[in-house]
Amino acid sequence: MRKRLTITNLKKMKQDRNAISVLTAYDYPSAKLAEEAGIDVILVGDSLGNVVLGYDTTIPVTIEDIVYHTRAVARGAQQTFIVADMPFMTYGIGRESTLKNAARIMQEGGAQAVKLEGGVDIAGDVAALVKAGIPVMGHIGLTPQSVHQLGGYKVQGKLDADAQRLIEDAKAIEEAGAFSIVIELVTESLAAHISEVLSIPVIGIGAGRSCDGQVLVYHDILQYSSPYFEKKFVKTYADIGTTIRNAIQSYVDDVKSGQFPDEEHVFGATPAAIPSLYGSSNESQPDSQLGKAGQVKKGVETS
Ligand code: KIV
Q1: Which of 77, 78, 215, 293 can bridge 22 by disulfide, Cβ–Cβ 3.0-4.6 Å?
Q2: Is there a domain that residue 250 lies in?
Q3: Cα–Cα distance measured from residue 187 to residue 166, given in angstroms and rounded to the nearest whole number
Q4: What pLDDT, on a 0 to 100 scale, did the predictor assign at position 95?
């Protein structure tokens, strides 16, 4: 069984140019499947607001949501390094509440690290968390919790002044002690420069090919939503949405047409018990047509 990576391993992976794979997960099965597939880091992203809870933005996601989902992920991926997002307004509004909220994510959720969005403005919070022994991943560029401030989900750092600000943000987060930083939706050249000047791993999403690792959203790579919106920076590896919809349609059709349940899905009673229960004249009972009682089906014994 693979051992859980540490922040030291992740920093070494950057030095060795060993690309870091990160995927979001929000529940037990997604985490378990990601771990079985060999993912390096699982992120319990507040994107759960969009892809699991059906919100338009990540802003409504609460600390309770993150703790609840992180706990399920931690049960599913016991050998994988888990980072969980600190939701909107659970940091940056007072050092004590930042520390308390991060502690909940670690203690109640079972994450190994937290992620915060922002640069220079939140560097003080990052430093306080690190001082308290909490590993921090930064997040700059397109920061979805500030979508209204940024004026939409747009590529960041296209103008020189914006690029310069993002470089300063990245350096401030590194200096504050973060072990890694996510950079989202920026030009490839800017992400390459930031990856070059920082010594901590830079994990890109929509940030091109030169980052030290990549992160994508579980539901995006699997097309696990309806409707599914194509995104330029996402590569999809399966079309689970269509598979699930077709499977449910077949189930509905089978129920309506009487094709489910079939003989293989039903349980018989002990033949001797049937006359005493239903009376010997009752020939319409389906049980009387069946074989053994207490059938064992796929490891589940019921009777
Ligand atoms: O919430 C999230 O899923 C994220 C990733 C997109 C980096 O922050």
Answers
A1: 215
A2: no
A3: 11
A4: 97
State both tokens at 126.
């990052």
pLDDT category at 280 given cuts 50, 70, 90 is low
Kindly compute the dihedral angle of the four CA atoms of residues 77, 80, 86, 88, in this order, to the nearest 10 degrees: -70
Q: Which of 26, 147, 182 most suits a substitution to test ligand 1, by most atoms within 8 Å of the C-beta?
A: 182
Task: Summarize pLDDT for 23-57 with one digit per residue, the tens.
Answer: 999 999 999 999 999 999 999 999 999 999 999 99
To which H or E segment does residue 23 belong?
strand 20-24
Cα 47 to ligand 1 centroid, rounded to whole Å: 6
Which structure tokens are listed for 144? 């979805």
User: 92 with 122: CB under 8 angstroms?
Assistant: yes
184: annotated active-site residue: yes
Average pLDDT over residues 131-145: 98
> Are 99 and 224 within one domain?
yes
Catalytic choice (35, 117, 174, 184): 184
| Tokens 């699982």 sit on residue | 42
Q: Are 143 and 235 in a shared domain?
A: yes
Q: Which domain holds residue 296?
A: 257-303
Residues 113 and 88 in one domain: yes
Supply the pLDDT for residue 285: 52
Q: How far is the CA of 91 from the centre of ligand 1 (A)?
A: 17
**pLDDT tens-place string over residues 66-120:** 999 999 999 999 999 999 999 999 999 999 999 999 999 999 999 999 999 999 9
Task: Write down the pLDDT at residue 293.
Answer: 40
Protein residue with its CA nearest to atom 5 in ligand 1? 45
CA distance 214 to 192: 13
Domain annotation covers residue 248: no
105 lines ligand 1 (CB under 6 A): no
Count the domains in the chain.
2
